[in-house]
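From the shared-data thread, chain only:
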Amino acid sequence: MIKLLIVDDSALMRRQLKNIFLAEGDFEIEVARHGEEAVELNSRFQPDVITLDINMPQMDGLTALSLLMAERPVPVVMVSSLTEKGAISTFEALNLGAVDYIPKPDGTISLSIAEVEEEIVAKVRAAAGAHLKKARGLAARIRGDMSVASATRQATTKRTTPAVEQTAKRDGVVIIGVSTGGPRTLEDILPRLPADFPWPVLVAQHMPPSFTRPFAERMNHLCPLEVYELRRPMPLEPGQICIGRGGADMVVMRRANRLMVSSRPESRDNLWHPSVELLGQSVLQYCDPQRVIAIMLTGMGYDGAESFAELKRRGARTIAESEQSAVVFGMPAELINRGGATKVLSMERIAEQLIHWVNAG
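Structure, as tokens:
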């Protein structure tokens, strides 16, 4: 049995979520109305996983999350409205130690939660077995008290034009596929790339439409490289990190003999968006695999495993995040099982390896 604590100030939401998990047959459930009850039940009930609403009276979700992680760390899935304001709060929660988030489709009180029932169950199950990472405060990170990015930014400035001596190294591309646990993992990897990093970086992070722009803005604050959300067709440029737009898929194409990256409507043939598999397939079509580095990070499922493994077979270098550091080992494990990983590395070693490969040409 999985012990689940549901925390929400809405009686309707508590009932809806409880009914969803009772129907699964292998959940033991307690409910809390606000953060104070959540902290008390975390100690007494000792759940395996918690769903935690962000907006609650008496004690809000972020305050409760801080106390939960300080007193008895436990995998937490935030319940978030799909708005940009909700996204900002959700990213703060992920920095405080939350594993993932699930949507409230209609805002604060959802009458159509059945639309995302399968996603909710899958994410809570994955979180119950997730590896917890050390909690970090958002305010401390932005101040630079504990961020590798801060030290990097003090020594470098954002890249504007490539150095002449690096021209020969500019014709490659880095692609990254990531899902559950991705925002925090990316914050540990991308800020380590220096301002003179010569290859463009394309990131397919499974994320809803309203989340990707705030996430790109957040990463742009942390990284020496320029980070932007893909909104229109753009040429692949060195010194830039492109975050695929939620609600769409990201693909590489060639126009006028120049490599471009563009968004297209979500493909119904793929379960996850932005699709890692479609990104990998487009890179196979338009790029020289020997000038490609593909990185598979934490996440549920198998998105991108097939195309990334094919890239490796054709000469690309690939990295799968290790089970040791992955919040959820699903996506990296799929790549490894298909023989698609040149290296299996913990999160802390990925940026260093990436820089080494790119500098080696």
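The first strand starts at residue 2 and ends at 7.
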